[in-house]
Design goal:
This protein has 97 residues and is an alpha+beta fold. Strand 2 and strand 3 form a beta hairpin. The radius of gyration is 19 Å and the shape is elongated. It has a three-stranded mixed sheet. It has one domain.
Length: 97
């Protein structure tokens, strides 16, 4: 069976973190192996579950794991890689500048 993905999106303050946490707990308690991945820079899942999370998924219950993505790290990595690719692609022009 292929994994199912649920996305909770919307403007701030509408309950995305709370809804995703509740659905994750419900699914895990109905014998579904569940991974909750939060990309919210506010890290609200820490407040909801009263635990610190990181990039490494942490077991919350037998069927529930939670991971918080470090968006600043991934943005910086993307920008550095993009800069490297541009410099590599246009290296020949630097000889003229």
């Amino acid at each position: 069976m292929a994994p199912k993905l649920l996305f909770f999106i919307g403007k701030g303050g509408v309950g995305k973190s709370t809804s995703s946490a509740l659905i994750s707990v419900y699914l895990s308690e109905t014998s579904h192996k569940t991974l909750l991945v939060s990309m919210d820079p506010a890290h609200n899942q820490r407040d909801i579950f009263e635990r610190n999370f990181s990039e490494k998924p942490q077991k919350v219950s037998p069927n529930l794991m939670v991971k918080e993505v470090d968006t600043d790290f991934w943005i910086e990595k993307y920008l550095k890689e993009t800069q490297r690719q541009i410099k590599e692609t246009y290296r020949y022009e630097s000889a003229f500048n």
